[in-house]
Amino acid sequence: MLLHYPALAQGTGYVAPVVTLEFGGRATGEPHQVYQVACDIAEHLPGVLFPSASPLVMTVARTFWEKATAAHVFCRQGRVRGERYARHWYDLAAIARSSHFAAAVTDRAVASAVADHKSCFFVEKDAQGAIIDYASATTGRLNIVPEGEAKAALARDYAAMRGDEVMVRDAPPFEALLEACADLQAKVNGAAA
What we know:
This protein is mainly α. It has helices at 60-77, 87-97, 101-106, 108-121, 134-138, 148-163, 174-192, and strands spanning 2-4, 18-20, 32-34, 37-38, 52-53, 56-58. It has a two-stranded antiparallel sheet with strand order 1-2. The protein contains seven helices and six strands.
């Protein structure tokens, strides 16, 4: 379902004035939890009462492994699959800085569930035409640091994302983001060993 709204500003056009709600049989949404959400600006305006919500969301571990395996596929294919892909690396680095990282990385049940689910519903091939083994990505052979043209394409996508100020706070430069992801990759692969 596409929910279009009038844009207040155009920016670079990286962020379209539309919210996409995806429904389908290929997503499990499991495991999930209720999560408290508050307005970002509330802390800056203590005299104003802002609404809060308690949506049902995927756990951080599920989100982490979904994004990590998506980045892994991108790197194994070595090509751009579309626009607005850099957000996954930004999100992975943000999770790595959070208090949720250790639990997400060591949640073997979720890692295995993501690998099994994607192996059935999201079969992908690498640059040489071989089927990508999601289980290997979740058991010590994760690759989320692109090289060559894939790295250049991701850098362009990330620059556009930063240009439209998609992140709430300052985003690191691209090379710093990739360094953080290389460190994350080493920790994830080490934890699986």
